[in-house]
């Protein structure tokens, strides 16, 4: 046996590791034989059909394939002559799909494309075989296609076969080694990597035992650690800390690293158990052990006594060579330098690895730190499976096993101990063990490891850990730090120290204690040695017993009682808490009721309560039963007081020392009348008095609270006013629902959020302008509010202003300043009859309003419009009839809500960056300016959804304009997709919905019903394809609105000969109602058209590459509420069209009047008889439009109008059956006569047939190609555009020359 082969330890019968699949007639005597011999020389077991099959059944070879780790498929030109080869390849594909086999393809003197497309002699042989057994066609074809998808080795006439075979053997060895290591078997070096018997320190010791547990996932960890050590840098010394919770595998990882890389260094040393040895032996002894150990590693001498040299001479000798040192289980920073004896003797290029369970130990001591993660879910499951089952996991236990793995957080020791305990136990035992994990202490084996960092803590820190683990497992970090000590700043190090030792985690500003550490804490708490500082009670039975019996010897540190576990009312004496002088944390709550007002408190104190509780820090009592806290109560250490839904009328008589109080919550204490007694609460940061309906005033003593940041008075219905004061730190003031508050006094100039919704105020004070930091102002449902002061414009930081439901609000103030930060303005449900002048221009010098006629068009309008930064504008349920024309200049507006504006009759041109428009229920809306909006090309590509449901007065011309706009937008988006750099992605979704029964004519594939299947022509997916546009007509005849959400979904599939190649699902459109909005009713007499566009990203992300071309596409449309299908809606018709990028360049600005995408539409709605306004001209110039003058358009309009008038004569009828007037035609979007038939079940609707692909001949094409008015119009369109282009160029040249002449 070769050396490589002998280094492996093989147990049990030999297993075929590599299976070679080849056509013997062609490669048996050469390539295949040489490959087999090379593999065997490396000690690799090989199975190949190197002899005739001698009548053996194919199942024998299938079994050999299943037993193998790797298959090498040698595909040659005569490969398809053999059905044996193809059948074996099918089996190989099945095993690879099951992830039990790796395949290495070799294309021996045959082109990969020839195999993929089955061309030449290779394909002819395949066809001859298939004719003998047609059932084999699909599996053989899939197998050949599959093998070409994998990167393989190509051997041609010029290849060096010897070198190629060496490379294949090397790759096979690497893959086999990875497989062995992942399964915990021997590596080719003969080193067994296993998780050995755990020491007290929790780390795995090295072991050569064949029964050692395998370490899963160690390769990934080692690779990450190697990157930090950077072994490639030969002349740089690097220190790396390996940090993690005890038992996570730090020692195992460090030993594996030393084993693999130690040969690169002349001296190596693994100094283990530094934490314990430094206590027993001292630093000097460990320093000696390190140096002698390094020298021994070179001379291969085992005993220290063979050397008798001064330490200085040892350092001098070692400094001549690079060393690799591992210091294992270091617990203090000082240990590192003391054991090393300084760093100056380390030669450049040395490596030092320090393992520790404390992050702070290696901080500022190392170049890099590697935090050892827990095992991944997959590796953790495999490791647990190794111990919990004699073979593989039984299917019925899989869910339980996954829960144990989740509990462990990937901790190897926990997985091993739990697995061994559960081995050969029945399912009932598993379930009981899982249920007990969170309620009982963990096993001693695990606890002895996890408690190591705990044992090193001081008594104070031990108490802090147990407090956090029992009472504050998932709490805000600042809150916990404040409770643990009265001085937050001094306490920072205490919480951080717990995190440093991995006893707690900090995540997103919260303190977290894992299940493992929680069960560790339970085990520690149950030990009598930790009860001296007071018990932490959370079991309701034990708590009730102590409250009733009041044992004198019991010291109590904390009580957390869930009242839902107290089944009936229970009377207790007034001295229940009298002797609990050590009580720090008290909480009575009810977990069964999400709303506290529904909960019950079954603890009754008929004689009241007497207690001092001078150590209390945290006092939470749901439905506190008394009118006042006991007179003897001493709150000098109280930090957090919460008494929700209590009967309290006043906190206490007189003043008490509450100098540490930071949080006060008395919400829904409906009897509370006064806040007397808070004058000394100078550290109070938050007050919550929500729902205190008897509270009539807030006392001026609040003015002493200099750090108060939050004041909630929501629902204090008796509150009429606020006192005059200035809270210098207040950021949030909530007065929502204070229905008797008629006057608002400014009590702080530092406010950032102000809630006045539902109050009785009629006007805001003019001093509101002093709130320079105000970001949010909520005035919703202030039914008496009539206007806002002009000083509202002084709120420079304001981002959101809500005036929804202010029924008396009639006029928006004139804003004299530019509110640059305002992004959301909600005006729904007000009495405004005209859109506010959000864009009134003011003079830069005088601040007065002026007209556009005097402005310099080359100065940016972005700076001279006052509210031009608004991004979200809600105007729903208002009575105005139109929007101002200059709304188009709200360049930042992305969201516009016009729902239920029942008197709105027309819409002007909308802003270019508008992403979302909802005009549902605008039943008077008749006119929409064309173009609907300016379309910016190649700028921002994001989702765009416009909804016009129940806009039943929209005529066909307007609908055609909407469709034209979105068709151009889709084309521009497609062009942007096509111009993206290779490899980049763009996810664009465009959708629109409007009332109609007609499918737009440009959807050239259509059918009645909800499903459409279409054969695809050749070359349909060549360069230029960017997406697909989809359309559906939905009937709401039987629709009953029950859900607030409705979506029209399309599931698409592109196939090749019944084999799916591309599958995707997309949303065409729909709606979701938010808040109090009712489900949307749809007028039953009108169908609605939904149009959507999906980009290249969704269509091609599953593309298998060249050679796979779909020949058929199918689409299925349905209406859902997001979870299930809505059955009382019906998809009557559907269609699709493929979108290709334009071959000519796209202009930077495109409007419906001037667009280079083959459409000419009506300009009848432009200002001044079809001419652009100066504002439009300005915008086009500023946006980089191709037009430099209005002259060209004026000259071209006459020609275009004549053509449009001519085109109008061939327009299709609208939904009412009448013909369109020539003056309003939109010929590019109407449905042509040939595509419509009368639908008897639905008057006014058409039944469409599937049109052929573009370029296919239709009956009568030759007769009508040159006679029909539509075709004549199309023939005239290009010459007219060319004329307009020439005129534009000439006019632009004249403009530029004139300008240049003036400058001269």
UniProtKB/TrEMBL annotation:
GO molecular function: ADP binding; NAD+ nucleosidase activity, cyclic ADP-ribose generating
Membrane spanning stretches: 1280-1298
Reactions listed under catalytic activity: NAD(+) + H2O = ADP-D-ribose + nicotinamide + H(+)
Superkingdom, natural source: Eukaryota
Keywords: Hydrolase, Leucine-rich repeat, Membrane, NAD, Plant defense, Repeat, Transmembrane, Transmembrane helix
Keyword NAD part of the UniProt annotation: yes
Cross-referenced Pfam families: C-JID, LRR_13, LRR_3, NB-ARC, TIR
Region (Disordered): 1209-1252
InterPro entries reported in the protein's UniProt record: Apaf_helical (IPR042197), C-JID (IPR045344), Disease_R_plants (IPR044974), Leu-rich_rpt_3 (IPR011713), LRR_dom_sf (IPR032675), NB-ARC (IPR002182), P-loop_NTPase (IPR027417), RPS4B/Roq1-like_LRR (IPR058546)
Domain TIR: 14-176
GO terms of biological process kind: defense response; signal transduction
Annotated EC: 3.2.2.6
Comp. bias regions, Low complexity: 1216-1228
PANTHER family per UniProt: ADP-RIBOSYL CYCLASE_CYCLIC ADP-RIBOSE HYDROLASE, LEUCINE-RICH REPEAT-CONTAINING PROTEIN
Name listed for the protein in its UniProt record: ADP-ribosyl cyclase/cyclic ADP-ribose hydrolase
Provenance organism: Microthlaspi erraticum
Higher taxonomy: Eukaryota, Viridiplantae, Streptophyta, Embryophyta, Tracheophyta
């Amino acid at each position: 046996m070769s050396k490589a082969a002998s280094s492996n330890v093989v147990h049990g019968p030999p297993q075929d590791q590599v299976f070679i699949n080849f056509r013997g007639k062609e490669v048996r005597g050469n390539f295949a034989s040489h490959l087999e011999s090379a593999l065997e020389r490396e000690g690799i077991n090989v199975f190949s059909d190197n002899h005739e099959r001698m009548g053996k059944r194919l199942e024998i070879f299938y079994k050999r394939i299943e037993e193998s780790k790797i298959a090498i498929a040698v595909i040659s030109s005569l490969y398809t002559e053999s059905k044996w080869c193809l059948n074996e390849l099918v089996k190989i594909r099945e095993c690879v799909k099951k992830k039990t086999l790796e395949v290495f393809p070799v294309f021996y003197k045959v082109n990969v494309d020839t195999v993929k497309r089955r061309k030449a002699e290779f394909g002819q042989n395949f066809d001859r075989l298939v004719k003998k057994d047609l059932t084999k066609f699909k599996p053989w074809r899939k197998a050949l296609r599959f093998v070409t998808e994998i990167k393989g080795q190509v051997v041609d006439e010029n290849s060096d076969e010897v070198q190629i075979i060496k490379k294949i053997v090397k790759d096979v060895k690497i893959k086999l080694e990875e497989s062995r290591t992942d399964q915990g078997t021997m590596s080719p070096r003969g080193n067994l990597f296993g998780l050995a018997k755990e020491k007290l320190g929790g780390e795995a010791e090295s072991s050569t035992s064949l029964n050692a547990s395998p370490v899963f996932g160690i390769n990934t960890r080692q690779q990450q650690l190697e990157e930090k050590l950077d072994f490639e840098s030969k002349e740089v010394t690097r220190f790396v800390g390996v940090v993690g919770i005890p038992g996570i595998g730090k020692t195992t990882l460090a030993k594996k690293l030393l084993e693999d890389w130690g040969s690169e260094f002349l001296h190596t040393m693994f100094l283990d158990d530094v934490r314990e040895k430094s206590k027993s032996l001292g630093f000097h002894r460990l320093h000696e052990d390190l140096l002698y150990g390094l020298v021994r590693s070179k001379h291969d001498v085992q005993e220290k006594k063979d050397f008798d040299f001064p330490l200085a001479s040892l350092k001098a000798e070692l400094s001549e060579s690079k060393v690799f040192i591992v210091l294992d289980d270091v617990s203090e920073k000082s240990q590192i330098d003391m054991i090393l004896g300084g760093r100056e003797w380390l030669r450049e290029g040395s490596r030092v690895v320090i393992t520790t369970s404390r992050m702070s130990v290696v901080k500022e001591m190392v170049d890099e730190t590697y935090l050892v993660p827990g095992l991944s879910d997959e590796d953790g499951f495999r490791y647990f499976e190794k111990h919990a089952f004699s073979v593989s996991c039984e299917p019925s236990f899989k869910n339980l096993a996954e829960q144990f793995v989740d509990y462990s957080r990937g901790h190897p020791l926990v997985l091993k101990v739990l697995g061994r305990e559960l081995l050969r136990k029945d399912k009932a035992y598993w379930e009981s063990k899982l249920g007990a994990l969170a309620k009982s202490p963990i096993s001693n084996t695990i606890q002895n490891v996890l408690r190591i960092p705990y044992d090193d803590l001081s008594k104070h820190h031990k108490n802090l850990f147990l407090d956090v683990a029992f009472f504050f497992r998932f709490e805000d970090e600042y809150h916990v730090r404040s409770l643990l000590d009265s001085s937050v700043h001094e306490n920072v190090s205490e919480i951080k120290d717990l995190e440093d030792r991995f006893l707690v985690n900090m995540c997103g500003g919260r303190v977290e204690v894992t299940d493992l550490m929680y069960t560790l804490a339970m085990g520690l708490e149950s030990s009598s040695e930790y009860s001296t500082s007071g018990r932490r009670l959370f079991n309701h039975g034990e708590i009730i017993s102590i409250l009733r019996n009041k044992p004198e010897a019991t010291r109590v540190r904390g009580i957390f009682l869930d009242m839902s576990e107290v089944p009936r009312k229970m009377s207790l004496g007034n001295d229940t808490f009298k002797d609990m002088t050590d009580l720090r944390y008290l909480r009575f709550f009810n977990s069964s009721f999400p709303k506290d007002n529904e909960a019950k408190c079954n603890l009754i104190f008929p004689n009241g309560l007497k207690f001092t509780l001078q150590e209390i820090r945290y006092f939470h009592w749901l439905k506190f039963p008394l009118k006042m806290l006991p007179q003897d109560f001493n709150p000098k250490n109280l930090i957090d007081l919460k008494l929700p839904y209590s009967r309290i009328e006043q906190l206490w008589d007189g003043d008490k020392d509450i100098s540490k109080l930071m949080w006060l919550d008395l919400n829904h204490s409906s009897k509370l009348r006064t806040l007397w007694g808070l004058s000394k609460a100078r550290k109070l940061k938050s007050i919550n008095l929500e729902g205190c309906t008897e509270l009539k005033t807030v006392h001026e003593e609040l003015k002493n609270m200099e750090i108060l940041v939050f004041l909630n008075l929501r629902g204090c219905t008796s509150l009429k006013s606020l006192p005059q004061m200035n809270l210098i730190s207040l950021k949030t003031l909530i007065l929502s629902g204070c229905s008797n508050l008629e006057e608002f006094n400014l009590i702080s100039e530092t406010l950032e959020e102000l809630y006045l919704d539902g109050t009785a105020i009629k006007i805001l004070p003019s001093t509101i302008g002093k709130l320079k930091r105000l970001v949010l102002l909520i005035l919703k449902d202030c039914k008496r509010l009539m206007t806002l002061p002009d000083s509202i414009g002084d709120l420079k930081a304001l981002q959101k202003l809500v005036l929804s439901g202010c029924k008396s609000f009639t006029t928006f103030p004139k804003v004299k300043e530019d509110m640059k930060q305002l992004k959301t303005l909600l005006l729904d449900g007000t009495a405004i009859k005209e859109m506010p002048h959000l864009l009134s221009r003011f003079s830069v010098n005088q601040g007065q309003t002026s007209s556009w006629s005097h402005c310099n068009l080359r100065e940016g309008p972005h700076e001279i419009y006052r509210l031009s930064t608004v991004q979200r504008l809600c105007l729903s349920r208002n009575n105005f009839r139109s929007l101002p024309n200059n709304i188009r200049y709200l360049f930042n507006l992305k969201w516009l809500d016009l729902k239920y504006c029942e008197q709105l009759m027309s819409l002007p041109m909308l802003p270019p960056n508008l992403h979302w428009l909802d005009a549902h229920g605008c039943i008077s809306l008749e006119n929409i300016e064309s173009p609907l909006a300016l379309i910016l090309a190649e700028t921002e590509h994001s989702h765009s959804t416009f909804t016009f449901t129940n806009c039943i007065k929209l005529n066909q011309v307007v609908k055609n304009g909407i469709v034209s706009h979105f068709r151009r937008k889709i084309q521009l988006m497609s062009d942007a997709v096509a111009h993206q750099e290779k490899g980049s992605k763009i996810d664009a979704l465009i959708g629109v919905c409007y009332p109609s029964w007609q499918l737009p004519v440009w959807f050239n594939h259509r059918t009645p019903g909800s499903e459409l299947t279409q054969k695809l022509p050749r070359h349909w997916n060549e360069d230029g394809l960017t997406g697909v546009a989809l359309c559906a007509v939905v009937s709401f005849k039987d629709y009953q609105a029950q859900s607030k959400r409705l979506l029209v979904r399309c599931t698409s599939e592109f196939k090749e000969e019944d084999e799916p190649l591309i599958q995707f699902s997309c949303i065409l459109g729909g709606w979701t109602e938010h808040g109090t909005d009712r489900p949307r009713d749809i007028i039953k007499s009108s169908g609605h058209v939904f149009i959507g566009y999906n980009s290249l990203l969704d269509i091609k992300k599953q593309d298998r590459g060249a050679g796979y071309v779909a020949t058929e596409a199918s689409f299925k449309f349905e209406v859902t509420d997001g979870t299930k299908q809505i059955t009382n809606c019906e998809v009557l018709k559907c269609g699709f069209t493929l979108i290709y990028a334009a071959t000519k360049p796209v202009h930077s600005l495109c409007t419906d009047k001037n667009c280079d995408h083959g459409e000419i539409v009506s300009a009848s709605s432009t200002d001044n008889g079809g001419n652009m306004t100066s504002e439009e001209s300005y915008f086009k110039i500023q946006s980089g439009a191709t037009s430099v003058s209005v002259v060209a358009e004026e000259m071209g309009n006459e020609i275009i109008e004549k053509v449009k008038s001519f085109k109008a004569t061939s327009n299709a009828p609208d939904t009412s059956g009448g013909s369109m007037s020539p003056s309003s035609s939109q010929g590019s979007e109407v449905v042509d006569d040939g595509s419509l038939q009368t639908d008897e079940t639905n008057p006014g609707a058409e039944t469409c047939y599937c049109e052929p692909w573009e370029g296919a001949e239709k009956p009568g094409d030759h007769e009508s190609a040159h006679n029909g008015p539509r075709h004549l119009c199309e023939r005239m369109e290009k010459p007219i555009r060319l004329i307009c282009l020439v005129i534009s160029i000439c006019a632009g040249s004249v403009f530029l020359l004139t300008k240049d002449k003036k400058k001269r």
